[in-house]
Each structure stands twice: as structure tokens, then as C-alpha cells.
Design goal:
This protein has 169 residues and is mainly α. The protein contains five helices and no strands.
């Protein structure tokens, strides 16, 4: 059974994951408007992944006898000054999410809620990957600079990303 405090904290994180999905979907439309279909595809896949993160927490709350309470999702930004600006926003957002996940782990440990602590470890590892991926995209865009060919090649690479919804939790 989840404590009320833990239940509230995971509910907040479900909202944060849904917001992440919304933010990345907003970035997908930005890239679409710049005719960068590969970047747009990458952001759409990322939005799907965030939805999966939110639903993974949703299911966990239910399994532990808690109650999911859905709150309003904040309006995401819709404009960025360049592809680099948008991807830097992805990185800073993921760093923020890592902080939120770490806060949840701290709470689970304070409460000696071992089941929630173990559950959250998956997200701890996931955040390492999320930050690494966004960071390497930032590095590539900095290297590319104003080289249109480089941007075109990266766009083609990002167009190949496919997110497959994991079957098992
Ligand atoms: Fe759900 Fe990108 O962290």
C-alpha cells in the first residue's frame, strides 16, 4: 500500500511525464514547420516514450492500491530560435526530470517503501539514457553549426527512429 504522501508525489510525476510528452509533441510541430521531418519524427517518438513513462507510473499506483488523480497539463512552449535551441531545451528538461525522479527516490527511501524504491530504479537508469541521448544530439548540432548538409544528414538519421511500446513493465 502506498502512503498518501507517496501517492501524491507519484501523481505529480505522472503529470510531469504527460507534460514532457506534450512538450515534445509541441517540438514535433516546430520541426514540422521547419521542414525537418526527421527531427519531427524523433520528437513524436519521444512523446510516445514519455506517455509510456506516465502510464508505467499510472499502473504502479493502481497495483499498489493507490488512486491516480489526473491534473491539468501545463501549456508547453511552441517556439524555439533554432533546432539547437529546441534540443538544448530537451536536455535541460531531462535534467530537470532527473531531479524530480531523484526526489521521488529520496522520499521512497525516507519512507522505507522498498517496493516503490525498486520500481523507481528503472526511471533512474532511464534518465541516464535520456540525458545522454539529448546531450549527444546537442553536441552533433554544435558540430554541424550552419552546415545545411550536416543538418540534412542528421535529419535523415533521426527520421529512422521508431519507438516500440515495451510489452512487459
Ligand atoms: Fe520521462 Fe524523458 O523522462
Amino acid at each position: 500500500m502506498l502512503s498518501k504522501k507517496m501517492e501524491k508525489a507519484i501523481n505529480q510525476q505522472i503529470n510531469a511525464e504527460m507534460y514532457s510528452s506534450y512538450l515534445y509533441l509541441s517540438m514535433a510541430t516546430y520541426f514540422e514547420s521547419k521542414s525537418l521531418g526527421g527531427f519531427s519524427n524523433w520528437m513524436r517518438q519521444q512523446a510516445q516514450e514519455e506517455l509510456f513513462h506516465g502510464m508505467k507510473m499510472f499502473d504502479f499506483v493502481c497495483e499498489r492500491g493507490g488512486r491516480v488523480t489526473l491534473k491539468a497539463i501545463d501549456q508547453p512552449a511552441s517556439k524555439w530560435s533554432s533546432p539547437l535551441d529546441a534540443i538544448q531545451n530537451v536536455l535541460s528538461h531531462e535534467q530537470k526530470v532527473t531531479g524530480l525522479i531523484n526526489d521521488l527516490v529520496n522520499l521512497a527511501q525516507d519512507e522505507r517503501d522498498h517496493a516503490t524504491n525498486i520500481f523507481l530504479q528503472w526511471f533512474v537508469s532511464e534518465q541516464v539514457e535520456e540525458e545522454d541521448t539529448a546531450g549527444s544530439l546537442v553536441d552533433k548540432l554544435i558540430l554541424i553549426g550552419k552546415d545545411a548538409n550536416g543538418l540534412f544528414m542528421l535529419d535523415t538519421e533521426l527520421g529512422q527512429r521508431i519507438f516500440t511500446m515495451p510489452v512487459k513493465k
